[in-house]
Amino acid sequence: MCDQEIVEEILAGNQAAMRVLINRYQDLVINSCFRVLHNAADAEDIAQEVFIEAYRSISSLQNGEKLSFWLYRMALNKSINFQKKNRLLKKVLFLDHIAPGKDCKHMPRILCPEADPHQAMVREERMHIFKDALSGLPARQQKAFILHHFEDLSYKEIADVLKVSLSCVESLIFRAKSNLKKKCRRYSDDFF
Fold first, then answer.
1. Confidence of residue 175 (pLDDT cuts 50, 70, 90)
2. Do 41 and 50 meet the contact criterion of CB atoms below 8 Å apart?
3. 89-192 is classed in which CATH architecture?
4. For position 161, what pLDDT does the model report?
5. What stretch(es) of the chain map to CATH 1.10.1740.10?
6. Which residues contact 12 (CB under 8 A, 6 or more apart)?
């Protein structure tokens, strides 16, 4: 069943189609929430809210809009709103908890694992600083940065997800990097 058929079935009242949508996009939504919240339990809770909201507002999905982008946007918005209300980003998690098996080539060097225990402690401190800086970015900059650096989306895909122009995405990511460098001055050479 393609995404369009799933949407049509949900609109027709077929609850089994909603289960298909959840099964297909559960990992995407949970991972998107986790990238912002850094807490598995919170990510799962927000993911549930995303799917409830998706069910309630599926009729607002624009014809031709990708279902995955619509869910990305919803997951990021709900996660950032939750984050703003609760400010629960105090614990530092290592990269293997953030993105198991993920290649480090698109992530700041600061987040890549080290073998030396001293380096691991330094990395933990740097990650804490980086996560605090990332959570302090304006919402649109944070979304663009996460989608590009952690979800590996192209600028064009980010523009589609955020419903902004390509030049706006370029600007958002540039400003996000600049702001992160300012907030992480002590380690700015290690970040990008």
1. very high
2. no
3. Orthogonal Bundle (1.10)
4. 87
5. 1-87
6. none
pLDDT tens-digit map of 13-39: 999 999 999 999 999 999 999 988 888
Residue 159 backbone dihedrals phi, psi, to 5 degrees: -60, -40
CATH topology (fold) of 1-87: Rna Polymerase Sigma Factor; Chain: A (1.10.1740)
Within 8 A by CB and 6+ apart from 40, the residues are: 34
As a whole number of angstroms, the distance between CA 31 and CA 99 comes to: 9
Q: Angle formed by the axes of helices 139-149 and 67-86, to 10°? A: 130
**For residue range 62-105, what is the model confidence (pLDDT) as tens digits?**
777 899 999 999 999 999 888 877 753 333 333 334 444 444 44
Q: Which helix (H) or strand (E) holds 135?
A: helix 117-135
